[in-house]
Request: fold
Amino acid sequence: MKKNQDAAISVKENRALEVWRQFRRNKGAMIGLALLIVLVLVAVFADVIWDYENDIIQMQIGNRLAPPSWEHPFGTDNYGRDMLARIGYGTRYSLLIGFVSVLIGTVIGVPIGAISGYVGGKVDNVIMRIVDTFTIIPSLLMTIILVSVLGTNLFNLMIALSISTIPVMTRITRASVMVVRNNDYIESARAIGAPTGLILLKHVLPNCFSPILVQATLRVGSSIISAAGLSYIGLGVPLPTPEWGALLSASKSFIIKAQHMCLFPGLAIMITVMVINLVGDGLRGALDPKLKR
Amino acid sequence: MKKLLSLTMVLALLLSFGIPYASAEEYKENIRIGTLADLSVACRYAGTATVTTQTCNSTFNGLVNIAADGTAAPELAVEWAPNEDSSEWTFKLREGVKFHDGSNFSAQDVVFTWTYALSTASEGIKQAISGNYLIDEVVATDDYTVVFKLKSPSADWLNYAAQDILCKKAIEEKGFDEGSKIGTGPFYFDSLKTGVEWTIRRFDGYWGEKPRTESITFVVITDASSRALALQSGDIDAMYDGNPSDIVDFMADSEHYNVYKADNIQVVYAGFNALTQYGANKTVRQAVAMAVNREELVDACYEGGECGAVAFNFISPVGVGYADVNAYPYSPEAARKLLEDNGLAGITLKLYTFAKYIPVAEVLQFQLKNIGINLEIQEWAQTGFTAAIKKDNGYDLAINVTSQYGGILTVMSEYLKTGATRTFMNYSNPEFDAMLDEALASPTYEVMLERYAALQQYVADEVPGVAVAMYNLFCIGSKNFYGVNLNAQAVDVDFTGCYVVK
Amino acid sequence: MLKYILKRILTIIPVVIAVSFIVFFIMDFVPTDPAVTALGDGATEEQLNYYRETHGLNDPLIVRYARYMAGIFRGDLGTSYANQLPVWDLFFDKFPNTLRLALASVVVTVLLSLPLGILAAVKENTWVDTVCSTLSFVGLAMPNFWLGLLLIMLFAVNLHWLPSTGAAGFSSLILPAITCGTGNMAALTRITRSSMLDVLRQDYLRTARSKGQSERTIIFRHAFRNAQIPVVTQIGIQMSTLIGGAVLTERVFAWPGVGAFMVDSIQKSDFEVVTGFVIMLAIFVSLVLLLVDVLYAFLDPRIKAQYSRN
Reply:
């Protein structure tokens, strides 16, 4: 018995190693992963690198709108605060919002999709019609309405953003489940009377793992951009949080005079999302046997 | 032959000088002015938006016109006199004045305006005429004489007499929506493209001096940077208001731009909500007043004094009857101590405001953090702000600006008196009310000014709100743009006289 | 075929009902008061209450919703609280602008993506391929409102070539269209590339090559034609997203479209406008998707047969 378990474990290990090896071959994905680790470290250790009181919110009116220099590589904002510190500190908000909102969306969307795909029939129909309805409402508007209702703070923002992730995760889970559902070993599991929940959990979902993971990773990027967009129109995080979208919003009034205020926060968003997408793309390539070179 | 040649040359020379004179139209027919919002109503009693005011300055007349120095000049009234105690004012009206729709102006229109616009119960009236609570009766003793009978003496009634006179015939026949646009001013309201622009056109039947410009188009450019860009590229001839950071650049480029700057009658203030626990607490208010570093705020938000000035008083220095006050000085240590001694250290205050005053709010947030108060800022869209203020008492503080009709009386009565409607402060202090009534009942103008001065000092001591800054009125035009009247008494900007030299 | 189209049009109705209910329900919780929006600053509590009574704002949600839907089926989309104008008029005042922007963006996307995708496919695995893919990656990662700001900084502020706001004329359409269009480049480039790759490897192309047709003809006649379906799908998705979702771009460029107006209305709690607009958008999006499906039928006779069978 133990031998079988060992064999089963090492199959999983092998699979993971296999994926890693595939991933490693993708240069873009590796660069992305390296940068992502840097970003995560910056986000986690932001309080160590900078002092919130002095670097992030201390106003130094005498030094407002200073262009990039050695002392302030990204310049200063309209209150004299160092842009590099604010942007660096803002990493934690974007990453947090991105990952958590997708996590929430996945945790809610995947079970719904699984049930819909597995059970099929009327249940599937009803669930998919509901999902379709939410898809027809433009997601940004939906998010805006939700934030207006719930109030603007970090947590509500994450909830509101997860709402647009749920339909995507539901769809992708459903599609994968529908493919896997008809597999032989699932049939046999059903034949011997295994409970549906168990089948879903142990056999069906693990096989859908890849597309779900890939889709989730890609959604992180769009969540980050949506969060920045909401902050841009003032519906995101409260002042004086140095979230990147909020920094872009503040730069609006100085678009003629201090363009550095607009340039750098946007670059930060772009690089972060690119990095995450590279990793997601690498995962997609590594996990999909069809794309093996 | 030579004589003929020289004669021809002289003739040619003369002609070449003569022709330009013959076609002397030196002014541009249509001026485009970039403004900051869309026009929703074209009548001051239907809305208080800045753009409404700007338009109505040119399309309506009042009985008198208040100049920048506070003196009154005849407009629809040619003569006027109060009775002994200023409780009755008689106005002799100008004859031969026509409204834009051709109907004749008479005392009936004055009576109609001062009856219809007296309260918001009348259809379409959203902002009642100022001074309405002083009116006892308005009577037309003949076609061109009107008597205002007031409930109590008012030495400065002329300020109220400057308000727009509506056209009775137009409103009664066409309804308020259409009829309220008709006035007696030098321009008439021509057309409106929602969200894009609106145009006013020179009224040929105007009783007074005709404007030099044939039509003025107000172009809606809500984003201040875009407005500056439009001015730079020549899309518009002038722009109203803008980002302080852009304005200073225009000011520095006097070769290409004419910058018109004036002191404003409006004062930016952070007002407390007297209905909340902290808003009602004088210690908290004093501490906040002592935590505000106005210089720093003006530096940060109004380009170091180029675009604004510090303010200690709810009344602007431009306001008639302004008196210097001793406000609480900037002393963060004292403020911190005051809070600690009273067990109020570390409290959280909620602040509501809208986009325009977010920079002020941010600086305030930072300065309050210095004394241990945590300020939470909630930003609203401007209309949302109005609604949010009315809805509940979820705010301890809010930042806004005093009214453009900001004479002392307006500010005192409509902002600080019990039951005041123009603001969110909910301030109710019987002592203040008594002082105000006493001031209003002053026998002479000099006594009134004295009592007003005392009132202003009282307000500075009680701090129902902290006045922080007065931001300047700006109109920036191309180098050929002239004639704009930034008369705070005329209420905001008056574009009636502007023109562009070709 | 016609029956298929009719059936699809009929399915729009339940969608409208569902969408409107969701929006109506959620908007109910927005914490501003339409009565205040309508009556403004100077209104007293009495007047507000009177307004609420006469406009049925105090009735329970279901009653208000039923009343609203009854109006919809009569063709009456309601009236805005903020400016007393009919929602129908407001929508058709702004929608042409949104449509213009959406179409222009699609044009930009197509003009950028198709060449890039084709190039990447033809030069598969070379540095050209990598560059093209990276470019489309960049487009995907850039927040489109930031791109808008950058374009304004470059073309309006620094160069003064193009205006930064407004909707007057063609020149003010350029920057917003590029902003929206570039963001959607990635998907279309990728799809074009993979469609082209798939087809480039097909047998019939080998046959065509052996018959001596030039490389270019092969590419543009056979491969391109077969990539049409996924490309059309992608364009359809892009159109339908842009119709309601270009909010941020509209804000940055002050483009008087539907999205920005809706956001303003949400914040004023003008829920007749919001619900009315969402319904109209849902209808138009459904029509766009239907149009895409109909286009399939024209492009691929097999699909047309499938529709007729159903």
Q: What stands out?
A: The mean pLDDT of chain C is 81. Chain C has 16 helices and no strands. Chain C touches chain A through 44 residues (CB under 8 Å).
